[in-house]
Amino acid sequence: MKFQDLKSLYELPFFELLARAREVHDVHWPKNEIQLCTLLSIKTGGCSEDCSYCAQSARYKSGVDAERLMPKCDILERAQAAKENGSTRFCMGAAWKGVKKDTKRFDEVIDIVKSVSKLGMEVCTTLGELGPEEAKSLKDAGVTAYNHNIDTSPEHYPNIVSTHTFEDRLNTIRNVQDAGMSVCSGGILGLGETVDDRLKMLEILSNFNPAPESIPINKLMPMPGTPLAGANPVDTFDVARTIACARVSVPKAKIRLSAGRTALSEEAQALCFFAGANSIFYGDKLLTAKNPQSAQDLKLLKKLGISPQSPNPEMESPEINSELPLAPQNA
């Protein structure tokens, strides 16, 4: 969608916007289901990047200690527990700028991915920047989706991060798409951005080719010691409006209600689900931030009559639309 179309959509009366989004959702996602994902930090802290929202940056005194890559046996134990608890996607995140082929670190990750992929869940990784060879190796090892958020608009991005560019993010996403992996890419609300920044972010995401398989919408959880520790909270209605616009602009994507759910009441979460969110991170911890407990999540879903979605480890990447240009390489 074009920016002006998104702006007109966003500015609709609230219930009219939600009705539009719900109509689109019911056409493309007729089953009353939600995807349950588990996110595990397999390498925490000590990151060289300066993302101003992230407690894992080595540049900030956030209280998060740098750790080595988790042993494979521990990761497999957590993955098996996630599967038994109902998760259909297991996402592994590592706090570093990126990974390079033919290094000990990358070889260890590939070995871990191969083992996790045998458990019958969808496998997602978020490992920072990727080149074409690294992306292909991850695909061959069994990764079904790669998470690489664009966070905000190209214009606002330099205010949030200086150690890489917005175009760097797009280059990694292009490499992931070319390797045949699905792209999981979204943004964070509450970075000091304007509504226009959020809509420009959605404009870029909606014009990816292939389209994103999933779009996480994160509500900033200000982390102590980071430059955004004192950021103002995002209004719940703004979160719901953004989710609704994401649903309309990328109808076939899973829209994931991600970080920040601890700050949302059950009623607020239900509103976001009605607006088009059909995926959540599920478990007791989300990287370095707390996440609603699994039992509470299942209780809420039962109240709403929503069932967990079945896993699809053989999931194919969305197809390229030959009538559209490939995802933009320049911001």
Q: Would you tell me which CATH topology applies?
A: TIM Barrel
Helix content: 25-40%
CATH evolutionary superfamily: Aldolase class I
Per CATH, the class reads Alpha Beta
Our estimate of the beta-strand percent is 15-25%
CATH architecture field: Alpha-Beta Barrel
Q: How many strand elements?
A: 12
How is the biggest beta sheet arranged?
10 strands, parallel
The number of domains is: 1
Mean pLDDT, as a whole number?
Answer: 88
Helix/sheet category: alpha/beta
User: Secondary-structure element order, as H and E?
Assistant: HHEHEHEHEHEEHEHEHEEEHE
State the end-to-end CA separation: 16 Å
Contiguous low-pLDDT stretches (5 residues minimum) are: none
Radius of gyration: 18 Å
Outline, from the CA principal axes?
globular
Count of runs of 4 or more consecutive helical residues: 10
